[in-house]
Design brief:
Blueprint (H helix, E strand, L loop, with lengths): L13 H36 L16 H37 L2 H14 L4 H27 L16 H25 L3 H9 L4 H30 L2 H6 L2 E2 L11 E2 L2 H8 L5 H37 L1
Parallel strand pairs: 1-2
Helix pairs in contact: 1-10, 2-3, 2-5, 2-7, 2-10, 3-5, 4-5, 5-7, 6-7, 7-10, 9-10
GO molecular function: phosphate transmembrane transporter activity
Membrane topology: Multi-pass membrane protein
Organism: Nocardioides anomalus
């Protein structure tokens, strides 16, 4: 007759407990520092910006009140960011899938490094490249869009002769947010359960069907998070857009003409140096609107991610 003895889990020593307490304190402190910085930014924008909502009409030129003024700038911000997402998301997801599921490791690792290096390029470099190199090369493309797709409001024309349009700004923003979306999506795809992938292949699924039915459902929440982070970067980008886009506070869907909608961030950058105290308050007020809008977008993204995670755990 044999007897079994249960082994008790090893007890953590004083050094381990001390290390856990130190790490917990550092992590908690870091979280509160981020929350404090966020609250400080909001308080500054609220205190300095709220008076800018009711300044004399001359400070909102060419309009005469704050909300139409900031509404047009917000439209331009969202429009440029959506153009960037439409261009960047398919490329980013495709590159992430190529690195995680298609490319051999000898090729996947260098490609991943190159994509990650794009995130280290300063935005002013992207702006210079977009204004001096990309814009002139897109003139012929925009002219072709005007000639062949001019019946679509987005390409109605007349095409810009300089290439400095909201379409060019969207392309630059797409390249800037590409490494963010790619890096996060790549990590999520690589963490998909291997047994699920092998089971799908064993049942006769093709590689694409395996990705569609085994990888994408698992990675849905991570993909949404990656896209929302890219959107946040595009919404807040300043110098690259200011250097590429010849803009004014207008509402237009035409992406290739000389009349382009301005973004909030680029408008602040271009108007800040010569702003009077009253105009400065107006600019800070527009920054407050951008802050609130970005916070709302991120909050909605977190809600979508949480909902997807709840579906996966059922």
């Amino acid at each position: 007759m044999t007897t079994t003895t249960e082994t008790e889990p090893p007890q953590a020593g004083p050094a381990t407990q001390r290390g856990d307490r130190i790490f917990r304190g550092l992590a908690t402190g870091a979280g509160f520092v981020i929350l404090g910085a966020l609250a400080a930014v909001f308080i500054f924008l609220a205190v300095e910006g709220i008076p800018g909502i009711s300044k004399p009409a001359g400070n909102y030129a060419p309009l005469d009140s704050f909300w139409p003024y900031v509404g047009r700038l917000l439209f331009g911000t969202i429009f440029a960011a959506l153009i960037a997402l439409v261009i960047a998301v398919p490329f980013a997801l495709g590159i992430a899938l190529f690195i995680s599921h298609y490319a051999p490791r000898a090729l996947a690792v260098p490609v991943a490094y190159v994509i990650d290096l794009l995130a280290a390029v300063p935005s002013v470099v992207f702006g210079l490249w977009g204004a001096r190199t990309l814009a002139p090369h897109l003139v012929t493309v925009q002219q072709w869009l005007d000639d062949n797709l001019g019946f679509i409001p987005f390409f109605k024309g007349p095409a810009s002769v300089t290439g400095k349009t909201v379409l060019t700004a969207g392309v630059v923003l797409a390249i800037m947010i590409l490494p963010i979306i790619t890096a996060i999506s790549r990590e999520i795809f690589a963490q998909a359960p291997r047994l699920h992938e092998e089971a799908a292949l064993a049942l006769g699924a093709t590689r694409w069907e395996m990705i569609r039915y085994a990888v994408f459902p698992y990675a849905r929440s991570g993909m949404v998070s990656a896209i929302m982070l890219g959107l946040g970067r595009a919404l807040g980008e300043t110098m690259a857009v200011a250097m590429v886009l010849s803009a004014s506070p207008v509402i237009t869907l035409n992406m290739i003409s000389n009349t382009n909608p301005a973004t909030i961030a680029s408008n602040i950058a271009s108007s800040f140096a010569e702003a009077t105290p009253a105009k400065l308050a107006v600019l800070i007020a527009t920054g407050l609107v951008l802050f609130a809008f970005t916070f709302g977008v991120n909050f909605a993204a977190r809600a979508v991610v949480a909902r997807s995670e709840r579906k996966l755990t059922r």
